[in-house]
Specification:
The protein is mainly α. The protein has helices at residues 20-29, 52-65, 93-96, 101-118, 125-129, 131-141, and strands at 46-49, 76-79. The radius of gyration is 16 Å and the shape is globular.
């Protein structure tokens, strides 16, 4: 199953600024990490590691975070194999298409959730500079 295509992002980070554990915790809180659903093959929950050390760390972190969830975390820890960049029309989708239903109904609630739970870890200059996000966030606060 590790060779099946799935959608993913590559995250580069400085461990002195944000830990792998915090990144995994954010990942788990921004999608259905315990739910089996009809699109799970395409939208599986996975952490792709670039070396054995990161693989072991990620596995241990998932085990440590499991008690926070009522159901089993189904997130897989897999070794990175290959990455294919998405089509240009899907890159920076949120910033290019702020009024699209996927942005307003899926991305914005996830950003709000992230800001509430992990605001101290978010570098939200780009998000805050996005005028549509500011407008909708202001409306929601009223």
């Amino acid at each position: 199953e590790a060779t099946i295509f799935s959608e993913a992002v590559i995250v580069t980070f400085l461990a002195k600024e944000i830990s792998l554990e915090t990144l995994i915790e954010i990942h788990l809180h921004t999608h259905s990490c315990t739910a089996q659903h009809s699109m799970r093959k395409k939208y599986r929950s996975a952490i792709y590691c670039f070396d054995e050390k990161q693989f072991i760390q990620s596995t241990c972190i998932l085990e440590k975070l499991q008690p926070q969830y009522e159901n089993n975390i189904i997130t897989q820890v897999l070794m990175f194999n290959d990455f294919k960049m998405n089509n240009d029309n899907f890159l920076n989708y949120y910033f290019s298409n702020p009024e699209k239903p996927f942005c307003t109904n899926v991305i914005e609630p996830k950003l709000k959730n992230m800001a509430e739970k992990f605001g101290e870890n978010m570098h939200n200059k780009k998000i805050k500079s996005h005028k549509e996000y500011e407008k909708r966030t202001a409306k929601n606060k009223k």
